[in-house]
Amino acid sequence: MAIPLAVFIGPPASGKSKVAKRVAAELNVPRLDTDKLVVAQYGSISDIFDQQGEAVFRGYERDAVKNALQEEAIVSLGGGAVLNTDTQNELRRVPVVLLTVSEEAVAERIADPKRPLLRDGISAWKQLVSERMPIYQELAWLTLDTSTGDLEAVAHRVTDWIRSGYPRESSL
Q1: Taking CA 99 as the corner, what is the angle to CA 55 and CA 27, rounded to the nearest 5 degrees?
Q2: Whole-number Cα distances in Å, 114 to 29, 35, 41, 117, 141
Q3: 6: closest CA among 81, 91, 80?
């Protein structure tokens, strides 16, 4: 069974999808974004939330994560995917990169109607991060901050980390 070369987790708007795309390109491997997989199969995340509810979305998300974690690829997960205990157990067996971002830096990134859990702005983001951060930190093999916005440099650091055999470090 194949496993991902790296899985990106972290708060909404931390740059998981963008950094994962750059790392996959640098390594010339496929990239799987579980949010995009859900959207391709079921429609927009905000529509799923509004019409079917968060529980239905989380079920779709879980299926996408389960499938993605069986591929030799760079994988980025939606910010809440780590709430599922099966996903947490699976992530304990693969290289996980946690991307963090400061409250100040994220403020301009979250003005996106496609993020249904962030419709209340920065206060909603802070609440999500405070609830999820212990899980993120427990699963992470490598933690990098994206607050400066230099996602190319972050991607390069992740690529170097993968090529060097995944040394367990809290940050680079």
Answers
A1: 105
A2: 27, 11, 16, 9, 29
A3: 91
Query: What CATH number does the domain located at 6-163 have?
Result: 3.40.50.300
d(CA 27, CA 23): 6
Assess contact for 20 and 75: CB atoms under 8 A. Answer: yes
Could you state, in order of their start, the residue ranges of all structural domains in the chain? Answer: 6-163
- How does pLDDT run across 99-154, given as a tens digit for each residue? 999 988 887 777 655 655 556 677 888 888 999 999 999 999 999 999 997 999 99
Provide the 3-class DSSP secondary structure of residue 103: helix
Rounded to 5, what percent of the chain is helix, strand, coil?
55, 10, 35
Residue written as tokens 């509810």? 53
- Find tokens 């093999």 and name the residue: 141
pTM: 0.92
